[in-house]
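Continuing the batch. This is chain 6 of the set; chains 1 through 5 are on the previous pages. Same settings as before, nothing changed between runs. Recording input and output for traceability.
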Amino acid sequence: MPGRPKVLAYYFPSWHRDPRNAEWFGEGWTEWELLRRARPRFPGHRQPRVPVLGHQDDSDPATFDVQIPLAVEFGVDGFLFDFYWYEDGPYLERALDHIEDQHEMRVVRLRSAFVFQRAAAPEQRRIFAGPFAPGRLVASRVLPVVPIPRGMRMQVVAAADLAAAYEAALVRPVEGAFNIATDPVLGSQELGELLGARIVAVPPRLARQALAAAFHARLAPTEPGLLELFLSLPLMDTTRARTELGWAPKVDATVAVRELVDGIGRRAGAPTPPLVPDRAGRG
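Output for chain 6:
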């Protein structure tokens, strides 16, 4: 008989002080501040809640001296840490660094490109484009012109291929960092062909100013800082993932983007709150 499925717990490691959080929210800020300020919003809503283990600092190795045995006791085989690349380097990775340095645990870091799938189209449209984006026009490939910041390049990966990388990281005795992205790298020419439009390259500063104006007018949900982050992302070499992890993507980048665009036009989605399809009547 096959063994039981592996159980992994998602872990958002923002429970420690971080220089970027201090810059954005004030010195000493962590996610615990949000929990402490929580207030009841309806009868029977017990807030604020106090964690059983207290307000722990997840950058302190002693925290995981408690959390790891607790996870083992309740049948949790590992943690899925959430972390980011922001401008000049990793963000919220300090807790993972301490685990790797202080505990005998196998640590695998998967650094993925933008993850696309058809069912995620409504959520990605709401996060990045907003309700005024002409979804049907984009999907029908009838837009004559699409402005894109000059020099923009992007790497993507299909959700199913990223899931395969996670599976390989679980079953293979590997450690360290692996970049997960699918060929080809997409530039303005490739995006123009996908959208059936003529691409007009605009200076990045002008693109940022236009996005900032739309954001402050509440016409777009994307903060201008996200565009700067997007343009500053390095291109990732996936050789190690392919050779040591044995990862081989099945969906190329153009197909992954085409699936997303088609999902936007057809109001695709899935039966979960974040992926609920857009209501009829939205473009």
